[in-house]
Structure formats: structure tokens, C-alpha cells
Amino acid sequence: MLYKKDIETLYRPEVLVVGGGPSGLCAALAAAREGADTMLIEQYGFCGGMATAGLVAPFMTCYDSSGGDQLIRGLFEKIVGRLCETGGAIRPSEVGAPSAFTSYITVGHIHVTPFRAEALKLTADRMLAEAGVKVLYHTSFVDAEAQGGYIKRIVIHRKNGLAAIEPKVTVDCTGDADVAAAAGAGFVLGDEKTGRIQPATMFFRIGNVDSSKIEEDYRANINNFYRRDGVNYRSLHWWVEKAREAGDWDLDRVSVGLFRGVDEDEWSINTSRIMNVDGTDSESLTRAETEGREQVDEIFRFFVKYVPGCERAKLLQTGSTVGIRETRHIKGMKRITVDSLLGCEVPDDSIAVAANSVDVHGKFGPRSNEYIALPAGKYYGIPYGALVPDGFANLLVAGRPVSADSDAAGAIRVMPPCMATGEAAGTAAALSAGCDGSVTAGAKKRFTPAPEADVDLLRTLLRSRGARVD
């Protein structure tokens, strides 16, 4: 690492969380509640990541594959509860499928959670303040100084210049394993076998919609959903076909993902598809942003012209950042495989359970996806070892880039599992920093390398906090 001037170390927290997206928010809250002096840095002026800056909504299911048992609880449930208290979300238990909230899809979509992005920003601020987390917004990760598998300093860029942080333990919640990669940890970019990376999406929100007319149109076509040659013909594909015939649709999509929000007249649209995007490269991201907005323009004009109830719709907002499904997957102590998920394996070091379907967008071409749901009532476990990069003593990774093959990551990349891994990583980081509740006042806290964590204690703590681990 070469710099032309000395960089002052300004902060020395016990736990540093880099990135305030869904996993980072939960990691910081979890570390602080175990008594760790915790700091969170975030490049935007708010937390939430894909849920706020990216406008990705709703939270996908937190239940088992039959919709009968809620699996992801803990901090996810607490955050949703706080949102519901202010009218900022609808409890997943109240959201059935198929419905407007699920884009009229049943499999893998029972009990999603509609929420307001603005409410989540405020709720995150309040919960972090209550937990005593030191938050630094408008602060970007620059580099990691690592030696012998130990991260010594994290270099950051603030509005007022470069600075450094010396944490005992770092939790990488950047979504792209930026810290791990900079420190020299091993990783795979996209699919190790094919080099394929899941496509990006520019989410957007529309309002002033007569939702009753969309519902009526859906009911008239309820038996017109099907799958052929790896392509789903779902919501509004009958209107997409008409628009294509008229020259008003040239996107490589055949149907539309639309999810009703908390407000009856607002919908989140998950339809644009930008292929061959490397989310770790600024030039590639720039192309994705500009192409994404062009696709949004075409899709919105389609809604106004063709979709019943959208004749007077308004484009409310596009994401402040393009939605990224896949970049790096770290090489960890353990690797989650798609076979282990589909086999519903729950390992001995499981720190969270989930049942989200394997969902690999663009696997067979830009119109396609691979979607494999678990058998009814089943679920799988996420091992602690998948959060620990090989060869590092004081680094954990949570969220999208945990150690997993590309297809397995297609299941656990959605926000509720990311929040569960964040909670586990934050708790583990606090334990690693010596915050296990056994240290008397004034005594020196004993550092434990992350690979040597007492996983039984970690699992016990998570359970005591309301999380499901098996």
C-alpha cells in the first residue's frame, strides 16, 4: 500500500462494521448489544443499502418453504416490528400468496414483508443510536493493512480527508467483500465454473396507481402463468407480448415483477435486467446505472400505455444505486454448496436457518432464470465457517459474499438471510474481541481468533436473542 502522506489513526473500536446495508445494520446492532465498543461506517448518508439506496423491496420470505414456520427472527424481526409500529411495514404473517404483495407468485413468496424505505432509514438511525453504535456516514472504505492474517488498520475516506481505524475485529458487510479482497483473502468472482455473474437490476417505484384494476386484470389471467424453456411467463406477460408486437417493448424480458407496497397506490418494480455487470468495477457499474435508467424509462412508459390502472401513474423514484445480485464469494473455512441447501442440511455450526429458493437470474440467457424451491416445510442451515475467510484471525464477512458456490449464493443473497448472517457475524465479532460477559470491570479483554470461536457459545447467545440457528 503506497500513500504520499501519513494517515492518522482516529478511531480504535473493538468492532468495526464496514457497510450499513441489511447485514451491516444487524452486525453493528448485534456487536453493540454484547457490550462491544462498536463503530459502523457507511458510504451513503443512511443505512439500509439495497433496501434503501437500491429500493429493493419487499423483504423476501423469512418462513420455511411451506409458509408455516418463521425461521428468520432475531434482529430481523425486531427491525420489522419497529417499522410496523410506525406504519412503515406490514408484518410478514399478514401477507399471503399469491397476492399483489408477492407479484402474484406463491412458490418461495409466502409471507414477504412490504416496507417503506424512508421508514427503514429512520428506524435504523434510531436503533443504532439506542445501541450506542458510533456511526460515520459519508465515509468510504479505501484499504486494509493486513499482516500475517491479522487486519491492523482500515483506511477510510471522509469528507475531511483520509483517516485510519484500528479495530480489534472487522466485519466486512460491503456486499462485495471489499475489505476481505483488499486484505488479500481468497475469493471467487461470480460462478467459478462459467465466469457468469448474475445480472443487475435498476429497481424503481411508481405511484398514483389504481391497484384495484391491476388486481382485476390479474384475476382475469390467473390461469395464464406458466414456465417454458427456463423462462417464466408471469405477471403482465400478456401485455408485454402486445407491447412487443406494437414496437413498444424491446427488452429481453417477457413478464414484469411488480410488488405492491405499504401504500395501496405504490408499487416496486423489479424488471430491468442488465447483463454482464461486474459490481466491483466502477466502469461496469456506470454502464449498469445508465443502461438501467434507460430500461426503467421504457418499462414505465409501458405501464402507462398498457397496464390497467396505471394510466395516470407517476414515476416516484429510481434506485440511487443499481441492484447487484452477485460479485465476490469469499473462500472461507466452510463453503455452502447448492447441494447442501437442496439437501436441507443443517450443520453443527449453523448460525442461521433459511428456506429461500435457489434463484439464479439469467442462467440460461437474459430472459431466463433457474428457480428451485425446497420441499414443503424444509429449510437449511448456514454454517459459521462460511463467515470466516481462510487465514484471517480478526475478520468476518456477512451478507451476500459469504463463502458459497454461485448457485447456493442465489438463495441466501436475499435480505432476510443477509440480516441473519449479519447478526451472527456481529455477535461473533464481539465474542472475538473478548466481550462475552465474563470480563470484570477494568480487566483486560482476551482476544480470540475468529477461526477458534466457541461456536456453542455463539449459538447459545443467538438463541437467547431470539434467533433461530437450527
Give a written overview of the molecule.
This protein is an alpha/beta fold. Helix content is 27%, strand content 19%. It folds into 2 domains: 9-95 and 115-194 and 326-464, FAD/NAD(P)-binding domain, CATH 3.50.50.60; 204-318, no CATH class. The protein has 11 helices and 21 strands. Helix 1 (22-33) packs parallel to helix 3, helix 1 packs parallel to helix 10 and helix 10 packs across helix 11 (455-464). The mean pLDDT is 96.
Reconstruct the topology from this structure.
Layout: E1 9-11, E2 15-18, H1 22-33, E3 38-41, H2 74-85, H3 117-131, E4 134-136, E5 140-147, E6 150-158, E7 161-165, E8 169-172, H4 178-183, E9 187-189, E10 204-207, H5 211-220, E11 226-228, E12 231-233, H6 237-245, E13 258-260, E14 267-269, H7 282-306, E15 314-318, E16 328-330, H8 338-342, E17 350-354, E18 358-361, E19 369-372, E20 380-383, E21 395-397, H9 406-412, H10 415-432, H11 455-464
Parallel strand pairs: 1-7, 2-3, 2-8, 3-4, 8-21
Antiparallel strand pairs: 5-6, 6-7, 9-16, 10-14, 10-15, 11-12, 13-14, 17-20, 18-19
Helix pairs in contact: 1-3, 1-10, 10-11
The total beta strand count reads: 21
* Euclidean distance between termini CA atoms: 42 Å
Q: Please tell me the overall pLDDT.
A: 96
State the secondary-structure class.
alpha/beta
The tally of structural domains comes to: 2
The amount of helix comes to 25-40%
What overall geometry do the principal axes of the alpha carbons give? globular
Radius of gyration, in Å, reads 22 Å
Largest sheet: 5 strands, parallel
CATH topology of the largest domain: FAD/NAD(P)-binding domain
Low-confidence stretches: none
> What would you say the CATH architecture of the largest domain is?
3-Layer(bba) Sandwich
Report the portion of residues in β strands: 15-25%
The H-level CATH homologous superfamily of the largest domain, spelled out, is FAD/NAD(P)-binding domain
Q: Order the strands across the largest sheet as they lie in space.
A: 4-3-2-8-21
CATH top level class name of the largest domain: Alpha Beta
Number of helices: 11
